[in-house]
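queue> pop job 88
queue> type: inverse folding (structure -> sequence)
queue> payload:
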């Protein structure tokens, strides 16, 4: 990707995030995105078919950058390290995650995809030993519970420290997985 293409995509991403603070993706037109980014529509259509295509690009970029950020975390014997790093990353990118995890309520799949990615990363590091036939259900439970906690934390203006929230999420997940650990 050349510099002009990177700049165009960055401007469109910033415009989308800004517009998502005010309205749902279904209410955002390509014309509006282009006006906000100060690019013409033909340039937009060189990269994306519609606003949903741009949203999908932004979502994938967030998942990739989050994964890259967390890959720098040294493996330890506690998934709380990854959770803490993830929470710090959310807080550091507050505007982006507030829009993508809270305000963009048209899009309920993205937060779950993002958290599922984090959980799989933790599982690969810690070998949680969840039976294969129960993994999907276990991840669904952990993702939905963790997502609700993180969304509440953001809505509550980060009233708990990242460390305390990471400990809480890890403790709840660990207790939930205790049944599998004791069955070994």
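queue> result:
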């Amino acid at each position: 990707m050349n510099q002009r293409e990177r700049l165009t995509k960055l401007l469109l991403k910033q415009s989308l995030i800004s517009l998502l603070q005010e309205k749902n993706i279904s209410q955002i037109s390509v014309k509006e995105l282009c006006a906000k980014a100060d690019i013409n529509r033909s340039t937009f259509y060189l990269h994306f078919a519609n606003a949903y295509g741009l949203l999908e690009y932004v979502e994938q970029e967030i998942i990739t950058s989050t994964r890259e950020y967390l890959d720098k975390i040294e493996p330890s014997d506690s998934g709380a390290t990854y959770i803490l790093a993830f929470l710090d990353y959310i807080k550091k990118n507050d505007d982006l995650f507030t829009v993508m995890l809270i305000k963009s309520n048209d899009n309920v799949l993205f937060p779950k995809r993002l958290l599922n990615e984090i959980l799989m990363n933790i599982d690969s590091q810690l070998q949680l030993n969840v039976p294969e036939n129960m993994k999907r259900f276990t991840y669904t439970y952990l993702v939905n519970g963790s997502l609700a906690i993180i969304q509440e934390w953001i809505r509550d203006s980060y009233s708990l420290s990242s460390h305390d929230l990471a400990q809480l999420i890890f403790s709840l997940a660990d207790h939930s997985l205790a049944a599998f650990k004791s069955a070994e």
